[in-house]
Amino acid sequence: MTETQRTRTFTWDDPRATAARVGSTSGLEMLQAMRDGDLPAPPILQLVGATGFEVDEGKVTVFMPAAEFHYNPLGTVHGGIIATLLDTAAGCTVHSTLPAGVGYTSLDLMTRFIKPVTVDSGQLSCVGAIVSRGRRTAVAESHLYDERGKLLAHATSTCLIFDLTA
């Protein structure tokens, strides 16, 4: 049996342009600039094939079509791709609440895989929302849905908040 060879090529912008704005722009303004194309999206979004996102303060939704190149040996989307989407939505949600000069980093990500994800899942949407936010930590959750609105996975993330000017 002859198998059709599949290839994939992707490009990305220099991530330093975006990183240079971290200390001088609020998280919400930075994410809005990425959404609007005024700043390049991070290379990880191009790597996984994300097609865009919506952003409001305290809520971020990331979109990505499930694709064959995401597959593991079992013929479903690899859990690492799913975790990447969940982590992105949760982390960006925290970022959307931060003023200029304040950063964050993920401390943990607790993930639950509910249903298998395949190309038949279609356009995925991963919605992040704030659970709680204090001065030093924030907790966000994210939920991954297929194009029919069925829950596929969810996660909770704790993020450390820190002063970038110190």
Number of helices: 4
**Radius of gyration computed on alpha carbons:** 16 Å
**Could you give the count of β-strands?**
6
Count of separate structural domains: 1
| CATH architectural designation | Roll
Low-pLDDT parts are: none
- The N- to C-terminal Cα distance equals 62 Å
CATH class: Alpha Beta
Shape: globular
Keywords:
Thiol Ester Dehydrase, Chain A, alpha+beta, 4 helices, single chain, 166 residues, 34% strand, 22% helix, six-stranded antiparallel sheet, 6 strands
Plain-language structure description:
By secondary structure, this protein is α+β, with helices and mostly antiparallel strands. It has one domain: Roll (Thiol Ester Dehydrase, Chain A). Helix content is 22%, strand content 34%. It contains 4 helices and 6 strands, in the order αααββαββββ. A hairpin with a 5-residue loop joins β5 and β6 (151-163).
